[in-house]
Design goal:
The complex is a heterodimer of chains A (351) and B (181). Chain A is an alpha+beta fold and 351 residues long. Chain A has two domains: 286 residues; 50 residues, no CATH class. Helix content of chain A is 29%, strand content 23%. In chain A, strands 1, 2, 5, 6, 7, 9, 11, 12 and 13 form a nine-stranded antiparallel β-sheet that branches. In chain A, strands 3-4 form a two-stranded antiparallel ribbon. In chain A, strands 8-10 form a two-stranded parallel sheet. In chain A, helix 2 packs antiparallel against helix 4. The radius of gyration of chain A is 23 Å and the shape is globular. About 3% of the residues of chain A have low confidence. The C terminus of chain B is likely disordered. The chains are: A alpha+beta (351), B mainly alpha (181). Chains A and B meet through helix 3, strand 6, helix 6, helix 7 and helix 12 of A and helix 3, helix 4 and helix 9 of B.
């Protein structure tokens, strides 16, 4: 059935599974704009990027990770004395020559830097579809792969899958929010990268934001318009609480979330500055939220997801307060393209 | 009653378990959280049906289809397991019925020290054990886990999201009550 299409699912995670790494796309507020431009250049038939995030508290886990590393450091620095030809000789541990040891200071410092900060878990999942006849494959996405931790501890990497069960992850907006297994394995062997990675609330705006400034003219697939509410007060840096139009929010039974789409984004000459941009640090709450990009037929649409009407209202209000406003419309939680694929399956005889 | 000695010498079960424990010692839970992808039309249909994107036909017809699908799963899913099992079984039979008797008959040392024949037979069972493990690694377990204190993970590898794909099929409420993995 899918011979006509090349469907690649993906998950973005830490290349080497170093849980304390906080890769950031630079410069600030460029991630979404660059990502959309990269998608536009590649021209897939369909692409869906899903950023699912929630606030978590991982202080205990990070501290225990640090103590595990301290134990290793002590072991590595233990000097053994051996007698060669009757003379005592000190022998350094082989562990000391490992890269694991050489970078231990950097990693413990990285843990100290954010062990008590409010933590945010971010999962980036998606699907990329090209027509098989085009002989085009999903390219490397440099916007993602250039996200490196400031101490170069780790970087982001795109993991590709052909397993259709990832579609369930996407439609149900699932995220792996219990990283206990990954923390447990970090110092013990069998380490793997967790499917979602840890950030601080300060890091989240690097990923979740509207494209602004030059992107308003360079990004072609998004519709930009002057924001619906712009007052001298908002220009002056004060927050204007924008009440979006009445949109009937329906809870999606599969994901248990409500969704809105943003058909038009506000045109902003430059990225929001402090103190407005600082408000974006409050984007994550204890409940899941999503920020999604859907590219189809040369057009990109933005989708927001939250677990309840109330949550959605505060999510939209926060974004519109920062960006001056945005059009909000009802949204189908399942992109039309996915429904089309399902329809084609429906018409096929069962194997 | 089959004794442990017979199991060790006549079957590769203990040897397979031993090789699994040695190779996957850093992640013994791998057998429960496999690192492999399910692909193919059947899986697509299952996922789309699970998401309600493929609308069900009338209930009776659907029941028939489900029954048919269940039969298909019973027949289709173990194909790999059955072929792997067949290869392992054939090699085990060869060891038990051909290799060990031939060795015992041709090498006089075996008749002088009878225990040697038993030990050799038990050691030879490692051959089907490795075959079984290679097959299981290819179709279920995934690559051997990395040892501790290795800074870089292998570049060519399957992402860890596959460990969670079975859980991803559950509805949101089940997740809340689930184990968190």
């Amino acid at each position: 059935m899918n011979e006509m299409r090349d469907i690649v699912f993906f998950n973005v995670s830490l290349s080497n599974g170093h849980l304390m790494a906080r890769p950031r796309p630079l410069p600030e507020f460029s991630f979404i704009g660059n990502l959309i431009m990269e998608v536009e250049r590649a021209e897939p038939e369909f692409a869906w990027f899903q950023l699912v995030f929630k606030k978590v508290d991982l202080e205990t886990e990070l501290r225990s990770l640090k103590s595990g590393m301290h134990w290793f450091k002590r072991e590595a620095e233990r000097v053994r004395t051996a007698h060669v030809n009757g003379k005592p000789r000190t022998i350094e541990s082989e562990l000391k020559r490992r890269e694991w040891y050489r970078k231990i200071e950097q990693r413990t410092k990285a843990i100290d830097a954010f062990a008590v900060a409010p933590h945010v878990l971010l999962a980036i999942n998606g699907v990329w579809v090209v027509t098989a006849s085009k002989e085009a494959q999903m390219p490397e996405l440099t916007t993602i792969e250039n996200c490196v931790d400031e101490d170069s501890l780790d970087s982001l990497r795109l993991f590709r899958y052909r397993d259709p069960r990832v579609l369930s992850v996407l439609v149900r907006r699932k995220m792996v929010d219990d990283l206990g297994w990954y923390f447990g394995r970090y110092n013990m062997g069998g380490r793997l990268e967790p499917p979602s990675f840890i950030l601080t609330a300060e890091d989240l705006p690097y990923y979740v934001h509207f494209p602004a400034g030059d992107f308003c003219s360079t990004v072609k697939s998004l519709k930009f318009a002057p924001p619906p509410v712009i007052t001298p007060a908002s220009e002056g840096g004060e927050v204007v609480m924008y009440e979006g139009p009445e949109v009937a929010l329906r809870q999606d039974p599969l994901s248990g979330m409500v969704f809105v789409s943003l058909p038009t984004l506000p045109t902003l000459a430059e990225n929001p500055k402090e103190p407005k941009s600082a408000m974006l640090r409050q984007l994550a709450t204890a409940e899941r939220r999503t920020f999604e990009l859907i590219y189809e037929g040369g057009k990109t649409s933005l989708l927001l997801g939250a677990v309840s009407d109330k949550e959605m209202k505060s999510y939209v209000t926060l974004l519109t307060s920062v960006y001056g406003g945005a059009d909000v419309a009802e949204a189908d939680p399942v992109p039309g393209y996915i429904r089309e694929i399902a329809k084609e399956w429906q018409q096929l005889p069962r194997p | 009653m089959v004794s442990l000695a017979e199991i060790i010498t006549l079957t590769p079960l203990v040897q397979t378990l031993f090789v699994y424990i040695v190779l996957y010692r850093y992640d013994l839970s791998r057998v429960l959280h496999p690192m492999y992808e399910r692909r193919g039309d059947r899986e697509w249909r299952r996922v789309l049906t699970g998401l309600g994107l493929i609308i069900q036909a009338d209930a009776k017809q659907e029941k028939k289809k489900k029954e048919k699908e269940r039969r298909e799963v019973v027949v289709a899913v173990p194909v790999r397991a059955v072929s792997l099992g067949a290869v392992v079984l054939i090699s085990t039979i060869l060891i038990d019925a051909v290799v060990t008797p031939v060795l015992s008959a041709s090498l006089p040392v075996f008749s002088r020290i009878p225990i040697l024949s038993v030990v050799t037979q038990a050691l030879l069972q490692f051959i089907p054990a490795f075959i079984a493990l290679i097959g299981m690694a290819r179709f279920w377990l995934g690559p051997i886990p990395v040892p501790p204190y290795k800074y870089a993970l292998p570049t060519k590898r399957l992402g860890s999201l596959v460990r969670h794909l079975e859980w991803a099929q559950e509805p949101p409420e089940a997740r809340e009550a689930g184990d968190g993995e």
